[in-house]
Amino acid sequence: MKTLVKPAVAVFASAALLASCTNTNQPEPEQKGDFASELKLSDYRPVSVFKTPQSNIQHAKFPVIDMHSHAYVDNVEDLQQWVRDMEANNVVKVIIQTKEDLEWAVECSKRVSRKCRLYLQPEWSVYEQIIGDIVEWVKQNPVWNISIQTHKFMHIP
């Protein structure tokens, strides 16, 4: 087998090529202050290198409001606003911490139209104690659905 270029010549040629590609006459760009502290995620607008169809989604397919309440409000006006918000979004979602909260959920559902979707969500801190009661309640009252905080099971705050 015949070697076309000696190894020492190849190394020298590679170094020369690399040096010719590097322009050391260009001044370094001026950095103002601490660049990392000025960088905002909201200003980041990456351009995709992929050429695929895109959808510009303006709103969710299903309207949902996540309302956390444990059977208490400060006043009647707050309760009325809460009910208006739920009805406007066609969803009633009540966080269940105790069996008494199930009664509160029923009271809430009486204040909205029948077209609202009804959800019960176990309070995370008592999940193990309350989930059985919620499941049994939904079996007996099939107009209700169960909502869970999936991120909690994955240990995501």
Give structural notes:
- The chain has 157 residues and is mainly alpha-helical.
- The protein has a domain at 76-153.
- Helix content is 39%, strand content 10%.
- It has helices spanning 7-21, 35-38, 76-88, 99-110, 127-140, 150-153, and strands spanning 91-96, 117-122, 144-146.
- The longest helix is centred in the first third of the chain and has 15 residues, at 7-21.
- The relative contact order is 0.08.
Taken in chain order, the helices and strands follow as HHHEHEHEH
Average of per-residue pLDDT values: 75
* Termini gap: 64 Å
Q: Tell me what portion of residues adopts beta-strand conformation.
A: 5-15%
The count of helical stretches stands at: 6
Adjacency order of strands in the biggest sheet? 1-2-3
The helix content, as a percent range, equals 25-40%
Nearest-angstrom radius of gyration?
Answer: 31 Å
Number of strands: 3
Q: By helix and strand content, what is the structural category?
A: mainly alpha
Low-confidence stretches: 8-13
Described by the principal axes of the CA atoms, the overall outline is elongated
Main β-sheet description:
3 strands, parallel
